[in-house]
Amino acid sequence: MKQRERRPGQKKTSGPAGESRRDDRAGRSPKPVQRPAAARETVRETAAPAVVSRPLMTRSGERPAERVPVILESLGAGDFHLIDSGNGQKLEQYGPYRIIRPEGQALWQPSLPSHIWEKVDAVFTGDTDEEGTGRWRFPKEALGETWPLNLLGVDFLGRFTSFRHVGVFPEQIVHWNWMKEQVEKAGRPLKVLNLFGYTGVASLVAAAAGAEVTHVDASKKAIGWARENQALGRMEKLPIRWICEDAMKFILREERRGSQYDIILTDPPKFGRGPNGEVWHLFEHLPLMLDICREILSPKAAGLVLTAYSIRASFYSIHELMRETMRGAGGVVESGELVIREAGTDGRTQGRALSTSLFSRWVPK
What 3 state SS string does 229-254 have? Predict the structure, then answer.
């Protein structure tokens, strides 16, 4: 399903559909047909299994309080920052490399002069849709497929994939910081479930902070990349379960088992397919996914976090869904957008804000 980008070219999300992740999240419109075979395991277009299901729970009680709109903004962190954007592109710094990638929401003109944009190490060219493959051009010299990066104290590998992604979605830093704070102040090991976990950066951040983590993704390549990241940071002894499975099947089984988690991160794709051809559509299957997540939240849960990319909807759509799902649970639902602010060549000169995705987050208070 998503990624949301499977590797090494693109992530196959871990959900019922484990397929293409988000186009770089902001203006992607995945095309269910015409998916290059390189992006995922071979998909059979006939007789695709139905997504495992169950009836939605009947909820009662008051809906949680609300905070809207909430804009969660990042200026960058660690080895990443957004240098500039415009003309349908973005200029980013990932460790030692300056990279240009397509960005449909950058409708304005670049702020920095052209000679800054010309001095880059890698440019993604080719299909501008997330579902289409392209290639990287290296203006200075040929670069290796991977290179080391660090965010929030976690080492991981960046990778030039054929789907424009590089192994991390840095706008998620705001959610990871929040999660890290919850884990560190809990006074006990929190259990974290990371659905559609991709390359495992969030899972490593949580585990390094003291959490017991279950990481789920439908792509074997994604799980392999995540394990590479774990080894790179010498974090093999951290308590992380790496689960290669359809996300919906996994959480349904956890519900039957009575398993519970203190924090759940879920980052489903708009459209995708699971390892056995299961079809996932966000608007059809998200209500049940959140419903199951509610059932496996622990009584002392710290939060349930949802992000959504490339959908033609207001954040209010997922905000009201989250409030209905958490009816009777108390707490607060806060929803809005994740944005990354331009930081210039020095990483500190604030510029325009680039919207990347919608989010909704339930917290107990």
Answer: HHHHCCCCCCCEEEEECCHHHHHHHH
CA-based angle 106:108:110, to the nearest 5?
Answer: 90
What confidence tens digit (pLDDT) does each residue in 155-172 have? 999 999 988 899 999 999
- Predicted TM-score (pTM) of the model is 0.85
Nearest to 28, CA basis, from 44, 11, 45, 43: 11
- Report the half-sphere exposure of 35 (CA within 13 A, side-chain side): 29
pLDDT digits (tens, 9 = 90+) for 117-146: 999 999 998 755 555 567 999 999 999 999
DSSP 3-state assignment of 173? helix
Structure tokens at 130: 């997330």
Query: At 52, which helix (H) or strand (E)?
Result: none
CA distance 115 to 243: 46
Gap between the Cα atoms of 137 and 140, Å rounded? 9
Q: Judging by DSSP bridges, how do beta strands 332-341 and 134-137 pair with one another?
A: unpaired
| Residue 314 tokens, joined | 């207001």
C-alpha span between 219 and 270 (Å, rounded) = 16
